[in-house]
Design a protein that fits this description.
- The chain is of the alpha/beta class and 455 residues long.
- The protein has a single domain, classed as Spore Coat Polysaccharide Biosynthesis Protein SpsA, Chain A (Alpha-Beta Complex).
- 53% of the residues lie in helices and 12% in strands.
- It has 15 helices and eight strands.
- It has an eight-stranded mixed β-sheet with strand order 3-2-1-4-7-6-8-5, with helices on both faces.
- Helix 3 links the parallel strand 1 and strand 2.
- The longest helix is centred in the C-terminal third of the chain and has 39 residues.
- The radius of gyration is 24 Å and the shape is globular.
- It comes from Peptidiphaga gingivicola.
- This is Multidrug transporter.
- It holds the Pfam family Glyco_tranf_2_3.
Length: 455
């Protein structure tokens, strides 16, 4: 046994080394593939959009689109800080036939009273009280959907689109019109808008969140349009009522990330999930480190819960969409593995420095490869972010600096990852919502430039 032990250790070391290399290779190649795909729109979708816009042009030069009834749901729990500004921003949209249903989920700060004081017939409030309130965002949305079916359906469910906007969400003025352009395609069952952080100029932490969302928008969501695996987010999502009905009477799950679950199940339902980069929803970034960690732990735990959808993805998805969706479901486990690889790298670097100090010659070429693998993709993403944000006088030098910081920001995800594992193992799923911060005047309205307009 003693003679075999060194050999056994060598085998384990080789397996670990080659396994780590394979994981890094797959992750880098996956990102590069989506980066290449994201640089163009799917031909069928692009041609369909051009046809819709051409057909909608009138002789006077204006555009008239088919107008499905839009019902915007805004789930709220103690949102007095932001709710009035958000509702008024939606009411200012030039798009006709938009109704707003605020779901007050047992607020104690007068949220519902503030909404009712707006006094606009397009706005209504659904008051939920304990013990039926505060059972999760998915439960609140499902309850509101029953009211939507009763109040707003006068013909086909195909003619009603249900939007979900967070209480701090600010849709671009043209967002509703862009959604209608997408829904003019009868195959489209859901549309997800891009997401921007409206207080990104006031906090480095908020800037990193904005960069994170832009990268997700410009690389992953745009790339997934080609794969048929576009995901849904909790803010700025629009879904045909008929597509929601196809998932049953309660389409939103009890998961901590009900939006992620919804997107996966919609992809398997026969409908097309579309991503709209021509408009965005602007939301408040978290500027407190502790609150950010709690928020991301909730998201991570919700993504862990998505493993329950694994079998349905294998059965219901097809081809590239199935492969990519399975990859998305497995991503949390890759993050956890990456955290162990990072620790291993730090230990190896520390040992190399230690032996160098002791006078033992060291080979440092591997550091160059490590830098390229860790920071190379970030530089490409930083360039894309600069292309988007330069209209707001964001310099290329800031983009380069933020790209390096972004790598370390990504490593912060290891903390909520293992925190979420601990919560999952102890069967804890209760969460308090992320507290809002007082808005500055410059953040109260969405910027005039959307993601799709800046490039």
């Amino acid at each position: 046994m003693t003679a075999a032990s060194p050999r056994f250790v060598q085998v384990l070391d080789a397996i670990g080394w080659w396994g780590a290399l394979l994981m890094v290779f797959v992750t880098v190649v996956y990102g590069l593939v989506l980066l290449v795909l994201s640089r163009s729109a799917p031909r069928k979708r692009a041609a369909r959009r051009r046809a819709v816009l051409k057909a909608a042009e009138t002789t006077e030069g204006s555009t008239q689109l088919a107008r499905p009834r839009m019902v915007i749901l805004i789930p709220c729990l103690n949102e007095a800080e932001v709710i009035v500004a958000s509702v008024k921003a939606l009411l200012a949209s030039p798009a006709p036939d938009v109704h707003i249903l605020v779901i007050d989920d047992g607020s104690e700060d007068g949220t519902a009273d503030l909404v009712e004081s707006i006094g606009d017939p397009r706005v209504s409030v659904m008051r939920r009280v304990l013990p039926n309130a505060r059972l999760g965002k998915g439960e609140a949305l499902n309850a509101a959907l029953d009211l939507v079916r009763q109040r707003y359906v006068t013909g086909s469910a195909n003619d009603v689109v249900v939007g979900v906007v967070d209480a701090d969400g600010r849709l671009d003025p043209h967002a509703i019109t862009e959604a209608r352009i997408s829904f003019a395609d009868p195959e489209v069952g859901a549309v997800q808008m891009g997401v921007r952080i409206n207080n990104r100029r006031r906090s480095l932490l908020a800037r990193m969140q904005d960069m994170e969302f832009v990268i997700f928008i410009e690389v992953f969501q745009r790339g997934r349009r080609h794969l048929g695996s576009v995901g849904m987010g909790g803010n700025g999502q629009f879904v045909r009522l008929s597509a929601l009905d196809a998932l049953g009477p309660n389409p939103w799950s009890e998961s901590l990330t009900e939006d992620f679950d919804l997107g996966i199940r919609l992809n398997a339902s026969g409908w097309v999930n579309e991503f709209c980069r021509e408009a965005s929803v602007h939301q408040q970034g978290v500027t407190n480190f502790g609150r950010l960690m709690r928020q991301r732990t909730r998201w991570f735990q919700g993504n862990l819960q998505a493993m329950s959808l694994y079998k349905s993805v294998v059965r219901g998805h097809r081809g590239r969409a199935r492969t990519d969706t399975l990859f998305q479901i497995l991503t949390p486990y890759l993050v956890l593995t990456a955290s162990l690889l990072t620790v291993s790298f730090i230990i190896a670097l520390g040992m190399s420095i230690y032996w160098a100090i002791r006078g033992v010659p060291q080979h440092w070429e591997w550091l160059i490869l490590a830098y390229v693998l860790a920071f190379g993709p970030a530089q490409a993403y930083g360039y894309i972010y600069w292309r988007i944000e330069r209209v707001n006088k964001f310099s290329i030098f800031k983009a380069i600096g933020c790209s390096h910081i972004f790598v370390f920001y990504g490593m912060l995800g290891y903390i909520p990852g293992w925190w979420a594992v601990g919560r999952a193992m102890s069967n804890r799923t209760n969460w308090a919502k992320t507290a809002r911060e007082a808005e500055e005047p410059q953040d109260a309205a969405a910027p005039a430039v959307a993601v799709g307009q800046a490039t």
